[in-house]
Design goal:
By secondary structure, the protein is α+β, with helices and mostly antiparallel strands. It is 31% helix and 28% strand.
Amino acid sequence: MTLDSLYDEVDWEEPPAPRRGRWPLVVGGVLLGLLALYAGAAAFFGDRVPRGTTVAGVAVGGQGADQARATLTEQLGPKSSAPLVLTSSAGKVEAAPADLGVAVDVDATVDGLVRFSLAPADVWHHVVGGGAEPAIVTLDDAAFAAAVESSRGELDAEPVEGSISLAGGKVTVKEPVTGTRTDVEGTADAVRRWWPGDSTVEVAAEVLPTKVTADELARVKAEFGDIAVSGPVTVKAGEKSFTLTPKQLAPAVVLEADEQGRITPRADDEKLSSIVHAAARKADAEVDAKDAVVTFSGRTPSVKAHVAGLELDDASVRSEVWTALGGSGEARTATVTTKATQPTFTTDIAKKTLPKAMISSFTTYFQPGQPRVHNIKLASRAINGTYIPPGEQFSMNGVLGERTPAKGYIEAGIIRNGRAAESVGGGISQVSTTIFNASFFAGVQLDAWTPHYYYISRYPEGREATISWPDLHNKFTNTTDGGILIQVATTDTSITVSYWGTKKYDVTATKSARYDIVQPKKYNDDGPDCLNQSPVVGFKVDIGRIFKQGGKVVKTEKFTTNYRPEDDVTCTNPKP
């Protein structure tokens, strides 16, 4: 039997057709039931607030719409009418909600919580319970913005820059404080979210940064400040050395930020040089040059040679000392270079500018035997032989000092407040006037002089100078081409002042007629210190100087002298 014949003999039967079951109907029924149950639950939950829900801190969970409205109106009413406080890092402001344009919308709040919804999330929200919800807040944007803008003085603040200082030799850091600027829209959103549950709401704000950060100040302190004050700086200058403390050097340290807020320590070069030079002089590391000195025996000169000085080189000081200030250990030693200095009045100049001839001389006269003559001669001896190098200034008060009995001066006549009086040293105005005229005709620069209160006939009209310690001066600057030797000679009736030097100008004087005449007053005085006065008119007069060289006028000068009247005073006290 073959395989094919065996196959043919098998009796094959068709399988029976399947029977239609009932399970689709069952599933459909279940689904319809669930949908009905879901819809019923949604309808049930839709007219009440999810359980566990609070609005702005008020519990309304499980309440129906009307009850929730009543609860919120009752509970939120006081909160929504109480002052609202807006706070910032700069301050705070308190305002009535109505002034801010904010209010609670109870209806909108409840409508947002109680509503029919088939959305699974909403149904599930009811099943598991609600949570904390904000109240719906209405806000008048314009009113709120206006209220915030008017409160920027309390809510906003500009940034306050920090600083670092080495004053007193100590590192002091003032921390920076950022500023704040209130964001109106962001603050409105914050009020909507948190009010009235919170009566205090922090404003939304922009942070205003400082130019220099706290990190930058800390960096400078660590990298420079702490090192700079760690100990003294030793300065070596030739064979001398001295130390400078951080306190001494601190005024020369500049710690200022650039536009990017970065601080690069640097020195104030002028201050640094001044500090180091002052310390060097105290340590004798710097020595001032000394002028040549000219003295006279009669009119025979003797020149004492000048002495060169020594000073620190500024460029070396500024480089080396600053570097040492930022170093540690041996690096805190600055080796600076020195240089010799020469005085203004060297030996060579002194010899070349010795007096060659008399360049001016003037004589005034006085009555013999008066107390004032004693003072005139005493002051003359003190001034005689004074030498004024070219370019230097003569001061009569500087030479004489205060006139005192200890120096030999006695009481004699003066003018005090327009009246004759007496004082120690009285009479030396005649010495001053004679010196003034010698200066006038020598062609020197007249720096300071004051004419007498009223005209005195023994002096040249308009060309005279009183003097008083310490505030009435007779000063001139030697503007000739050589030194000036002042010689003063007196007799019992006269004083002559002669200048010996190098003649530069031929000087002649001019004088105007008197003008603006003022008549003196006449009165009696019974005071115990009264001195009789004879009347003299007051007036003005113009005085001029004409400077000539080689017979040609090279310049002219003019000044006005104003004399007040000398009143006619009769003393009536029987015991004046």
